[in-house]
Specification:
about 15% strand; 4-stranded antiparallel beta sheet; alpha/beta; about 600 residues; 22 helices
Length: about 600
């Protein structure tokens, strides 16, 4: 607990809000307060602390196509977006977070998939969409909106968007011929396809996706995409962080600058004789709105468009690298046509392979995300995905690697340090509670009730570990913040684990278990390990919300001391500034009644 007096009532109420939000970290989705309940609670805050005074932080996943069951890639997109949403809540509990995920349920691919199953599209979509909703719950995804493109409210939003584009002169009726991929739901120009020969069969595929294409010539409506090539290029010039990572920003930027391949107007409808499963073109039932226009509009529908757009622009839209063109060219052009700003950042992540091969049903190497969560545990899976976050390059999904990370990082580093400082032998040498004080002159003072304070000035390694130096608590907080805000989630997680590894090393160096260990060594070993775990529990909460809450509870950390404000005030202050006085609880939860933070995981049991 931080013993610094505060008289401002709004801060006290804000801390109560923090406690409410923090207390949900270890709860299942069915137990967490609803978004409506959290908004009601926020409305009770004083005006200066009201969530409505800030633009909501808006994060989205791509909406997932329901032509097949969820796979690890869908899970990864969801967990990555959820980690960013939870980080936003951690950083600023006063700011509302709007987090949207959902399912894309229209298009030729869905129409054919339903026909192959011998069912109508609507019940087919209902069933698969529910599976994606179940996965979000199983993965502890904290979304505030799960949207389906078959919802009536979305139909109305898409119709409004279409009418606006028509009224502004951006849509016209024409004729389109080109190579169409049902799998990608996209047209490709002649220079975007290539010939493939498979035995005696020859056909064309998209160079970009490898999907088979067919020649289609039809009357349809077109969007004047060609008019936006210069504006899109300028948008990227002005916003070098608009697409992350920078390599994908460069790909789109360079393509827009290439005058030899100008943007062509975009076909934005299909004849209803070919495609019935979708949103009809307003006032023209012979045409169905192109599935990508329909799908992209979900990001506006989710925040109340057209009546309400307060959350726009999105702060970050998590997408896969295979749909960059749709989100980095088509989507911002449509928004510009509506006089709406493009999203602030498109986080275009790489893909997951399995055992170094692309996941494929034909190869039999498609990992089931539900089974992974059941076998390894939800936070172990979340940790593995974020510790190896595939942003620039593809990452590999491997049972061997998951078990390795679980054993080495979670059980061997994090869980082991907690067990070491909580052992009966160590606790028997410690007071139930002690305080430590750090001052501007770098003095460390540890106070035990009814004893004279112990003062330390001759342990530079521990002073650096606590307050400064590379790998110290201060640098970890600042480095973690920098990495998270540049979307380097894997590096942020790595920095926290390096901190705990160092705490383990210093604990071993001081040998507090030794019969000859003096009181100062015992207290120093416990103090740094306890504070490192405390900080790790805060910083890892966006990645492992359940286990982080358990860790902090085991340490005896009060709810109000699990916040970003606390981390900055206590851990990131360094050896300068005002005196900070911290109460350190040696016991926490009674060790006799505490289960291990992480259970042992054997590869043999995983492969059964």
């Amino acid at each position: 607990m931080l013993l610094v007096s505060r008289s401002n009532v709004s801060v006290a109420r804000r801390n109560a809000n923090v406690a409410l939000l923090c207390s949900t970290m270890s709860l299942g989705s069915s137990q967490r307060p609803s978004f409506k309940q959290r908004r009601t609670f926020a409305a009770s805050l004083p005006k200066e602390a009201s969530l409505s005074s800030l633009k909501p932080y808006y994060v989205t996943t791509p909406i997932f196509y329901v032509n097949a069951a969820p796979h690890i890639g869908h899970l990864y997109s969801g967990v990555l977006a959820d980690t960013l949403a939870r980080y936003a809540r951690l950083r600023n509990p006063d700011r509302e977070v709007v987090f949207c995920t959902g399912t894309d349920e229209h298009g030729m691919k869905i129409q054919r998939a339903a026909a192959d199953k011998g069912v109508a599209p609507e019940p087919f979509c209902d069933s698969v969409s529910q599976t994606f909703r179940d996965l979000a719950s199983a993965a502890n995804i904290s979304h505030t909106r799960f949207i389906r493109t078959t919802e009536p409210v979305h139909y109305r939003a898409v119709e409004h968007l279409w009418r606006e584009l028509v009224a502004r002169g951006w849509i016209y009726k024409g004729h389109h011929s080109g190579w169409y991929s049902v799998s990608d739901e996209a047209f490709y120009a002649a220079n975007q396809v290539m010939d493939v020969r498979d035995g005696d069969e020859s056909y064309k595929v998209s160079k970009e996706s490898g999907s088979r294409v067919e020649w289609i010539s039809e009357e349809n409506y077109k969007f004047k995409l060609s008019a936006f090539q210069g504006k899109l290029g300028q948008w990227l010039e002005d916003n070098p962080k608009a697409i992350v990572p920078s390599s994908r920003w460069k790909e789109v930027h360079d393509a827009l600058l290439d005058i030899s391949t100008p943007l062509e107007d975009l076909s934005v409808s299909r004849p209803s004789s070919r495609l019935k499963w979708g949103v009809p073109v307003p006032d023209d039932p012979d045409h169905t709105i192109y599935v990508w226009v329909d799908a992209l509009a979900n990001y506006l529908t989710a925040i109340g468009y057209p009546q309400r757009t307060v959350a726009w622009p999105a702060d970050v839209q998590v997408i896969g690298k295979d749909i960059v063109r749709f989100h980095a060219i088509y989507w911002p052009a449509i928004l510009m046509a509506l006089d709406l700003p493009p999203p602030k950042t498109l986080l275009a992540h790489a893909h997951w392979t399995m055992d170094r091969q692309k996941m494929s049903k034909s190869r039999g190497n498609v990992a089931d995300p539900f089974e992974a969560i059941r076998v390894y545990g939800v936070d172990s899976v979340r940790y593995y995905l974020m510790r190896n976050a595939a942003i620039i390059d593809d990452s590999d999904w491997s049972a061997d690697q998951i078990v390795k990370h679980h054993r080495r990082d979670l059980t061997g580093i994090l869980g082991n340090l907690l067990a070491r400082i909580s052992s009966a032998g160590i606790l028997s040498k410690l007071p139930a509670m002690y305080t430590y004080r750090r001052t501007a002159d770098g003095t460390l003072s540890i106070s035990i009730p009814n004893k004279d304070p112990l003062r330390f000035t001759s342990h530079p390694e521990f002073m650096d570990a606590l307050w400064g130096g590379e790998g110290g608590l201060q640098s970890v907080v600042l480095g973690y913040k920098e990495k998270m805000e540049s979307f380097e989630v894997s590096k942020a997680v790595e920095s926290v684990m390096e901190l705990v590894t160092e705490a383990n090393r210093l604990f071993t160096q001081l040998e507090p278990w030794s019969k000859t260990a003096d009181e100062g060594s015992i207290l120093l070993a416990h103090l740094y390990a306890h504070q490192a775990l405390h900080l790790a529990g805060i910083l890892l909460s966006p990645v492992m919300p359940i286990k982080s809450a358990m860790l902090l509870t085991h340490l005896g950390i009060a709810w109000n001391d699990r916040t970003w404000e606390y981390a900055e005030r206590v851990f990131a202050r360094g050896a300068s500034g005002e005196t900070v006085h911290v109460v350190c609880c040696a016991g926490g939860v009674d060790a006799k009644h505490r289960a291990p933070l992480f259970q042992k995981l054997e590869l043999a049991q995983v492969k059964k």
